[in-house]
Design brief:
The protein is built from 2 helices and 4 strands, in the order βαβαββ. It has a 4-stranded mixed β-sheet with strand order 1-2-4-3, with helices on one face. β3 and β4 form a beta hairpin. The longest helix has 15 residues. With about 80 residues, the protein is an alpha/beta fold.
Amino acid sequence: MTSPLPRFDWDIFCCVVDNFGDIGVTWRLARQLEQEGHGAVRLWVDDLASFSRICPGLNPARDGQWIEGIHIQHWHKT
């Protein structure tokens, strides 16, 4: 049984397009918000495989996971 997720103060969405610039910027923003104590952060990413190339420890096969105090959620766009 998994524990319920906390209420998030920030939801950041990233559509990975090219050259890791988009995910790089949103990842830095998410880490800065968390590190400076601005509240709980959830980062929604549509391409976890690409994100895992710049985020060691990220498992692209998992829909939701915690990395560096930030909840990473796979964003399934419809």
